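Mono(ADP-ribosyl)transferase SpvB
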Amino acid sequence: AQWLVEESVTPAGEHIYYSYLAENGDNVDLNGNEAGRDRSAMRYLSKVQYGNATPAADLYLWTSATPAVQWLFTLVFDYGERGVDPQVPPAFTAQNSWLARQDPFSLYNYGFEIRLHRLCRQVLMFHHFPDELGEADTLVSRLLLEYDENPILTQLCAARTLAYEGDGYRRAPVNNMMPPPPPPPMMGGNSSRPKSKWAIVEESKQIQALRYYSAQGYSVINKYLRGDDYPETQAKETLLSRDYLSTNEPSDEEFKNAMSVYINDIAEGLSSLPETDHRVVYRGLKLDKPALSDVLKEYTTIGNIIIDKAFMSTSPDKAWINDTILNIYLEKGHKGRILGDVAHFKGEAEMLFPPNTKLKIESIVNCGSQDFASQLSKLRLSDDATADTNRIKRIINMRVLNS
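Predicted structure tokens:
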């Protein structure tokens, strides 16, 4: 038999809880080769929940099969129940039945059939901080898995990661592809070898700071710059690991000075990148949340000048948007830079602006207005105009002010 872990606990009372889905035959063609098979054995990992708000020394499963615990984090494995459209953030709760793979197969390791009919289509990371984030289940990151499906052999062909910020902005996807194989060894007595594409390149401290910001530092840094609550311990660990601090218990002044130097290095690394000819970039916001009511008011006042205290992430790619599109016009001499190869995740189409970028709201086109359909059509977000109309609530035309 095979044992599946359901729960673990540390001496500090920190639990990890594992949930599984049982195979049920949904969306499976039960005729032909599939007729008469027993599908009841297979289990698929569905959720991994951790970060119990209250420590507990004993396993929850000792007292209840479905413990009522306040989990702070949930990793969801989705098999097609929530939809895989990259433009639509999936919900925490499954909306549909799962999809069937075209090439089902069986395992007989334990003397009976274990039939596999599913493919993991995406992995979703949710945070549960309703008071801080304004909603019970907040999507933070998403790994989309794409397959070349056929009845003979299905193969994974692409993996894309999407990150979601607290204001609803969805960062451009990251496309992970296998590099081509190296060339064959040279023959005929020539012992020269091709130069490795992984040769070490010396980088400035500023570029290294920018690269780390792109990878994982953006959340802490931007919360700090905006004056929002931020994980101070994580910030100190970052500064210590990158030699901006010499102790993990700095004074308030030492911490602020180190953060200032770190942020300045990120900005200098950004300004050292080549200028770009882009004249329009886009940013998607999810403004229709109670926690963002003040932000919504600020962004829906024509003529208002908005100063983003944090680094502002945008993209030349129009597809990665939410219910509100910021259509941002750029003038020559703007300070936005395409991260390109400096980005930690290669292939990410992101233009980053330094802190205190000024934007002026020139016009607002709301869904249902006379000009909405026309302007939405000009943006050409996707091939499905009806879906775009249902998804987009407003288009805000803005301009970056260089002074």
